Amino acid sequence: MLIVFVALNGVAFMHAWRMTHFVAAASRVDLKRASISGKLGALIGGISIPRPSNAFTPAEMGMAFSSHRFVTSDGVKLEAWHIEAKDDATSRGLVILFHGYTTSKASVLGEAKEFCDLGYDALLVDFRGAGGSDGNVCTVGFLEANDVAAAVNFARQKLAPKSLILYGQSMGAVAVLRAMAKCDVRADALILECPYDRLLTTVAHRFESMHAPAFGLAHLLVFWGGLQHGYWGFAHNPVDYAPAVTCPALVTSGSNDPWVLEREARDVVARMRGEKQYALIPGVGHEGAYPNNPTDWRRAVESFLKDLHSQSAPASGR
What does pTM read for this prediction? Predict the structure, then answer.
């Protein structure tokens, strides 16, 4: 039993390490086509995840942009793209976009274009360990909250937006919620996609999708993953960050999302203290609503923004 216990902890440690430390030269492993030895190696040592890169820029989508760099409170240099609305003189404000796990700011270019078409400027940010930002480590929304705070500070000091909206996908949504709870970040509104309710819950869902027992294994992965990055993973819970949200918020999730279930997303919304809306986007998993169902994504976002602007104009920093 002692040998089994040590072995399980060793495997959990390695998997947690691989999941949160990206490798520049890595390529994605197709387990369905891997050899028996390859599958065994992945089971024991985890799978190396390639460092997320920006495969294309706004220029490929016909949008002019400028690149900016700024530093977080813990010394990490981040890169961001700034895209101005078609008529900047009548810009309705700025939307700062934060991507999800194992992606980069290029992954939210489609959403950024939609916001620009609606009259908003866009600032797309690479989290630490991704794209043009420094490092190769990801903490699944924990230290990324510092990145959110740095981006907001940069925007307020250098771009002076009329209003400020924070948009986050998955890990990006969690980082936004933690930044509001722990870094005193304020915004005029939030648009969040598929925020998990608890780190343990979403990790457990991944075991369940592989028909593996989640109890025990998920706990070990969360324990070691947090310990490697200096935090208690069992306390990294967006449902506990949500009460810090007092501004209007729209939360969406996908009807086919295996990692964040509808009731879990609704639980996050229920804890928020400001005006809030929830939209379930049909036929969408965890990979992002806009690329897979742009019609319903656009309907939910436009309705929220219409309601936002039908009210008295909020003071930036609400």
Answer: 0.92
Tokens of 142: 């924990």
For the chain, give every domain's residue range.
1-50+204-236, 58-197+244-310
Q: Please, what's the b/e burial string for 144-179 (b: 16 or more CB within 10 A of its CB; e: otherwise)?
A: bbbbbbbbbbbbeeeeebebbbbbbbbbbbbbbbbb
Report pLDDT digits (tens) over 155-168. Answer: 999 999 999 999 99
Cβ–Cβ < 8 Å for 125, 96: yes
Beta 121-125 vs 77-83: how paired, if at all?
A: antiparallel
Contact between 72 and 78 (Cβ < 8 Å): yes
Q: What is the pLDDT of residue 314?
A: 45
Burial 115-132 (b: 16+ CB within 10 A, else e): bbebbbbbbbbbbbbbbb
Strand-pairing partners, residue 280, are 253
The CATH number of 58-197+244-310 is which of 3.40.50.1820, 3.20.20.140, 3.40.50.360, 3.40.50.300?
A: 3.40.50.1820
Question: pLDDT tens digits, residue range 62-112?
Answer: 999 999 999 999 999 999 999 999 765 578 999 999 999 999 999 999 999
Distance of CA 141 to the CA centre of its chain: 7
Q: What is the pLDDT of residue 149?
A: 98
- Which of the four pLDDT bands, split at 50, 70 and 90, describes residue 215? confident
Task: Tell me how far apart the alpha carbons of residues 52 and 107 are, in angstroms, rounded to a whole number.
Answer: 10
Give residues with Cβ within 8 angstroms of 251, minimum separation 6: 173, 192, 193, 195, 265, 268, 269, 276, 277, 278, 279
**How confident is the model over 121-141, as pLDDT tens digits?**
999 999 999 999 999 999 999
